[in-house]
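ok trying again, last paste got cut off:
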Amino acid sequence: MKPVTQEWIEKADGDYRTALRERRVRRRPNNDAVCFHAQQCIEKYLKALLTEHETPFPKIHDLLKLGEMCSPVAPALKTVEADLDLLSRYAIAFRYPGEEATLEEAKAAVKALDKVRKLIKASLAK
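nice, full thing came through this time. structure:
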């Protein structure tokens, strides 16, 4: 694995740990942060996959678009498009006043995060 790919993975895993840690909080959890870091984790994993395969990518947060770009090397990503779509919304949603993530949204974000992360990690291991 390329060193720069490993750097993307380390950053992604930092977001993963943050999302899971905040999800476990019982008093005053920050569900917004759970959703945001779930999205960030998958964005960075997708960019790691593209980096490993020397595929340039634009500065975007659209997980569906990034997933589409990864499909030549990870066709199984087609099976998680609904999860990518869900997580993609969290790049911006809940970051500013006016909307807050619910506990149910945070739970759904972590579920999607775990599913997509596992698939991408398997693709990186090939």
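cool. Helices lie at 3-24, 31-52, 63-70, 81-88, 103-124. DSSP finds five helices and no strands in the chain.
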